[in-house]
Amino acid sequence: MRYTVLFADVVLFFPVIFLIFKQMKIGETQMIKASMLTLMYPGLILIDHGHFQYNCISLGLILFGILFLSQGCDLLGSIAFCLALNYKQMELYHALPFFCFLLGICFRSQNQNGFFRLIKIGLAVIATFVLCWLPFLSSVESAIQVLHRLFPFARGLYEDKVANFWCTLSLVIKLKNILTTEHIILLCLVSTLVMLLPSSLDLLIRPSIQRFKLALINSSLVFFLFSFQVHEKSILIPAIVVCLQINKDPFWCVWFGILSTFSMLPLLIKDGLTTAFIGSTLLYLILSLSLYDLVQYTGWRKSLQKLLFLVSLLGMAVLTIGSLTVKPPVHLPDLFPVLVSAYSCVHFVLFLVYFHYRQFTLENDKQDEVVLKKKVS
């Protein structure tokens, strides 16, 4: 059975990684380096091949969606996203950037082409959803049952000790003790929508390929931090798009890759993947340092960047060793999972701020302009 995961990697995930970096026109050497480091991302390897899941399929489809949109193929990009979403509902994390980017492109058209393009995209989306849902539409009961399984509100605010805002907040305020489940769902919904607005509106008003990729990171991070019923494995959704930024932001991408893997430490320990976690993370770090100059600043900024990275790595190392060797107090059985989630959450908030900054200070490059001209013509 585990060979089926490798088969999905070889058939779907590996090819799209090479294609998407080749499409960036960064040169063959840089393409190989970026592809190699992305394929060595330990988080996805450990979850798919250790925890045994098929995240490579939904993530591969979402990458095909990004690839198609980068080439000006709106319909194929929309279909790829719909397939990813119907395969795994957590791809809702990426839904708003796809919507805002395509709508923004249609709005930029100076004639009726934009309206007809929007109609064609809408029909493609509807047709894809109908085909995917056709087996479950034989009765209303079966369709409702599928929806209940897709959105399991009864399972609570988050799974285990996940590194998001609500789990960290529970160290101070126990929301479930003061609010009903319905009120918590509403709170999560409002918080998520409010946090999504800046990035989404910016993409809608100023659509570009690079801004689209950054908005995908920001949207999925917001969902991970603030939405209802989040699992620790959901961090793979923003992580895979962060990997695409390796040639533009190597320091932040590598840092995110290591931290996102570390945030799943309690789950990996539970699955008996401790040795694999340590080995794959160290290999990823060594490979990153050998392929890229991570510290790109000079002067005091360079010193600060090095200090932040080293302190962060030291904290991860201490918590990893503590989780494996120190027996927690009887009255605090989840001490280390809670510390890992809170420590990771602080980092994710920092990443969210940084990638928002990158999106709002971004200027369109020549490749973006070429693609946009094709789209609006």
Automatic annotation (TrEMBL):
It is an enzyme of class 2 (transferase). One of its GO terms (molecular function) is dolichyl pyrophosphate Man9GlcNAc2 alpha-1,3-glucosyltransferase activity. Keywords: Endoplasmic reticulum, Glycosyltransferase, Membrane, Transferase, Transmembrane, Transmembrane helix. It comes from the Eukaryota. InterPro entries: Glyco_trans_ALG6/ALG8. The chain crosses the membrane at residues 6-22, 58-85, 92-110, 116-137, 184-205, 251-269, 275-295, 307-326, 338-357. Its main location: endoplasmic reticulum. Pathway: Protein modification; protein glycosylation. It holds the Pfam family Alg6_Alg8. Its EC number is 2.4.1.-. It is a multi-pass membrane protein. It is found in: Endoplasmic reticulum membrane. One of its GO terms (cellular component) is endoplasmic reticulum membrane. Belongs to the ALG6/ALG8 glucosyltransferase family. This is Alpha-1,3-glucosyltransferase. It comes from Mytilus galloprovincialis. The lineage of its organism: Eukaryota, Metazoa, Spiralia, Lophotrochozoa, Mollusca.
